[in-house]
Amino acid sequence: MIQRCYCSLRRSLPIKRALITCILLGISIGFSLFGQAEDKDPKVLALSPHIVEILYDLQLESQILAVAEGTNFQPEVVKHPTIKAHGQINIEQLVKWQPDLILAWPYGQASALPKRLKPFNIPVVFSDPKTFEALGEEYIKIAHLFPKHPEALIKARIIRSQLQQSFQRLATQYASPLNVAPVRVFLPISDSPLRTLNKNHPIMEIIQLCGGQNVFAEAQSPAPLVSEESVIQRSPELIILSRSVVRDSQALQLWRERLKVPAVKDGHLVEIHPDFLHRPSVRTLKVADKICQAIARSRQTR
Q1: pLDDT (mean) for 178-182
Q2: Does residue 98 have a cis peptide bond before it, meaning omega lies within 30 degrees of 0?
């Protein structure tokens, strides 16, 4: 670029002035296109725990300025400052960090971030993978945001391949028999208020893949509020609980008493760590077999 610029300017400017002009022009272009020097990748605020997990999986933790409150994986994530990312988000606090980029889950207050941060020229990229395939592509998408870390893209492609292979294995190993109705599954993610997930989540794809059916799959909200009466009406045969819902044996007993449904009557309540259930990342694979086995047991006791 400098050579071309010099040739065009040498008739009107002394050589030194031409070179200086072109160098400054190149620097200016680098900043205007990427919002930062060309030799640096963006420093980010990661406003969802699953995004932090993806960044760590891609070995991009050095690019993190701060993480969402409640982020607890990987263990060394505690070294990062935390920032409020749920409820009322403080825009001034976000701007104070001077991030090059914000990565966020596109619901609640975060959905308005692009508009609210536009005056500050801080771009926002949303992450909301709803299927196994989308989760693999999410790793690729995020890796592409950091071109100065080519190893991240290599890692992302490996993870995408792992997800695809695992999906195929689950489909083969746990496929339900033909002409057999799917097992009705209820997955509460909070107890008070009672809340679940709709179909747009990778964990729900696992449930469907292994012969289950989310009884609230068609809800409009990604995390709908539901009543005990609506759960009883849908008569789930399997309930997948997490420690965010059942914290001790007493709470588990209350669940057995409050919901008179086949899952409770037949003892088909399975407990899984909430982080594996609620956060779409490669860790989701660690609970896939446990979920599929629970669905198979529920089917056998009909």
Answers
A1: 90
A2: no
